[in-house]
Amino acid sequence: MIWTPPASVPDRKLGPFPLTEEGVAALLDRYGFGDSVLRRVVVDQESGRQAIPPRVVRLVIDAMVMSEDIRWEPVSLDLYGVRRFRIDESVTTSWVLYDPPQFTRFEGLLQVDLCAERCGSLHLANAEEVFEGSNLVFEVTGGTWSALHPWGW
Length: 153
Fold this sequence. Notes:
Blueprint: E1 12-18, H1 21-30, E2 31-44, E3 55-65, E4 72-82, E5 84-87, E6 96-97, E7 102-106, E8 109-113, H2 127-131, E9 136-140, E10 142-148
Antiparallel strand pairs: 1-10, 2-3, 2-6, 3-4, 4-10, 5-9, 7-8, 8-9
C-alpha cells in the first residue's frame, strides 16, 4: 500500500481568537462538540541539542456550528508554548469527542483536555489531576482558536 499524504489544513475563515476566558466562552458558544472528530494533530518542534523546548501544536476538529442546523466546519486550536502533552492511542479510540474540550488554568499554564468525559470531577485541584487518565491533553502557555474554510476534497 502506498501512503498518500493527507490534505493540508484549510485556511482560516474567522479568527484567530485568544483562548482567554472570553475566547473559550465564544468557542463553546459557537460549536457543539458532541460527536465531533479530531481530524489533525500537528506538532511543530525543533529537534536536536540546540532545540528550544516550547512547541506549537495545531488541533483541527470538525465540529457542529450551533447557530446553523446541521452544518459542520473545521475549527483549529493553535496551542503555543507547549510544556507537555499526552496523546494515547488505542484500538478503541476513533478520535470522536463526546464532550467539549475542557480548559483549565493552574500555575499560569492552560490545560486543554480533549477527553474531558473521562474525568469524574468538574472541580479539578491541579494540573496533575487534569493529566491523570486523560488520553488527549496539552499544557501550554497560551493559544488561539479559528474557524476554518471547508475541507477541499
